[in-house]
Structures are given as structure tokens and as C-alpha cells.
């Protein structure tokens, strides 16, 4: 389920409960609801969706995390290839998960090229795979 939809649904449910509680004078555990909502929102802000990615013959990994920026949901990404180098590519503030991870890979390639980690044949292999 899309995270944005999940947050909107959570807010809607809280609104319904508030309206319902005021009319029927039902005791509701607001403290527990706030704790549960905070845990859920916190979990969205942690690096997750670890994905192994084959990158020019190396096993690399990509991760994303969601966050709220200026009242909009955005995605950050990071990409690393420990068997190749200690460098890490990163991205911030993308509208989509795919955009975040793609930009993190581009950032990684730029850094690896600047540090002469990738050979010319590896760069040609990357160009051919696009």
C-alpha cells in the first residue's frame, strides 16, 4: 500500500474516532493511539526496503526511506557496493521510490568515476546496459 495513502487513512480514522467519541462519550485510550501512530510514522523514517542489486557483476545494495518535507512525502535513497568500494551514493527528496534509488546509483557512479574506482570497460558496460 502506498505510504501516503496509509498516512491519510490513519488521519481519517483518528478523525472518525474523535467525532464518534464526542457524541457517545466513550472512553478511548488516546495515549495508546498516539503511541501506535508515532511508532508507525517513526518506522517510515528508518532506512528500509533493503534490496540486493547486481551492478556490473558485483553484489550491491540499495535502500530507501520516506519522510515528510514541507508537508509532502518524499523519498531518500542510498546505494553502496562494499565488494567494490567503500563509497556510497545518496539522494534526497524524490517523489518516487524509483527516482530516489536511481539518483543514488547515479551519484555512486559519479563518485566512483571521480575516484577512478570504475575502469573504462566497466563504464562502457554500464552505458551498454542502459
Write a short abstract of this structure.
This protein is of the alpha+beta class and 130 residues long. It is built from 4 helices and 4 strands; from the N terminus they run H-H-E-E-E-E-H-H.
Q: What is the N-to-C succession of helices and strands?
A: HHEEEEHH
What's the level 1 CATH class? Alpha Beta
Biggest sheet record: 4 strands, antiparallel
E-strand count: 4
Unreliable residue stretches: none
Name the strands of the widest sheet in spatial order: 1-2-3-4
Inertia-based shape: elongated
Kindly report the CATH topology.
Double Stranded RNA Binding Domain
Strand-residue fraction?
25-35%
Considering DSSP H and I runs of 4 or more, what fraction of the residues is helical? 40-55%
Distance between the termini: 29 Å
Structural class: alpha+beta
What's the architecture, going by CATH?
2-Layer Sandwich
What is the CA-atom radius of gyration, in angstroms?
21 Å
Mean pLDDT: 79
Q: Please report the number of helical segments.
A: 4
The figure for the number of domains is: 1
